[in-house]
From TrEMBL:
NCBIfam families: sigma70-ECF. It holds the Pfam family Sigma70_r2. Belongs to the sigma-70 factor family. ECF subfamily. PANTHER family: RNA POLYMERASE ECF-TYPE SIGMA FACTO (PTHR43133), RNA POLYMERASE SIGMA FACTOR RFAY-RELATED (PTHR43133:SF25). The keyword Transcription regulation applies. This is RNA polymerase sigma-70 factor (ECF subfamily).
Length: 202
């Protein structure tokens, strides 16, 4: 006697679910425009934090142009393209180092002119962003690879996402972030600023 088998088709994904970034990157130019719409604002903020608004439009445009050209290389097992886009943006921003340095001097000047003790009230991930603003000039002394990790962490990426963005092991992310934090913490203390952790889980 034969055992009955279940021949009913496998359930299909809910057609109402929005397509993943991986699916869109495998699609048409119009599909890629949806990826842009999803993530352009975050990439813009990340670039603006590093180079200011003068060159940010060009940096964002370069990021998405490269992403479109390399879309076939995207790891289709990842649903979100955001860490990948952050990695491309980080590489693009290396071409804008002069603009980045000018912007750090500008936000350093703005920080010195402000009476608000922002560095004293920031904690965890916010501390990283505050330190970037309070110690903009000090960042010139931080090695570029550590600085990249610090900016991505301040932008809100997890250790895993930073590792994806920069194509490095998570252990390397943690090591570089620790070194950057140590350097900036020492600089904060030298300025008499305490109460910041520059620590926290990703």
């Amino acid at each position: 006697m034969r055992t009955a088998t279940n021949t009913s088709p496998a359930p299909r994904p809910d057609s109402s679910d929005p397509p993943t970034d991986a699916a869109l990157l495998a699609g048409t130019r119009t599909d890629f425009a949806t990826v842009f719409d999803r993530h352009a604002a975050e990439i813009y903020r990340y670039c603006a934090r590093r180079i200011g608004t003068d060159a940010v439009d060009d940096a964002v445009a370069d990021t998405f142009t490269i992403a479109y050209e390399r879309r076939a290389r995207f790891d289709a097992t990842r649903s979100s393209a955001l860490p990948w886009l952050y990695g491309i943006a980080t590489n693009v921003l290396r071409r804008y180092r002069a603009a980045e340095a000018r912007h750090r001097k500008l936000i350093q000047h703005e920080s010195e002119a402000s009476a608000e003790p922002t560095a004293e009230r920031a904690v965890s991930r916010a501390d990283a962003d505050t330190a970037i603003r309070a110690l903009a000039g000090e960042l010139d002394k931080v090695p570029r690879r550590q600085r990249d990790v610090l900016y991505l962490y301040a932008a809100g990426l997890s250790y895993a996402d930073i590792a994806t963005a920069l194509e490095i092991p998570i252990g390397t992310v943690m090591s570089r972030l620790h070194r950057a934090r140590t350097r900036l913490r020492a600089a904060l203390l030298a300025q008499g600023i305490t109460g910041t952790t520059l620590e926290g889980p990703a």
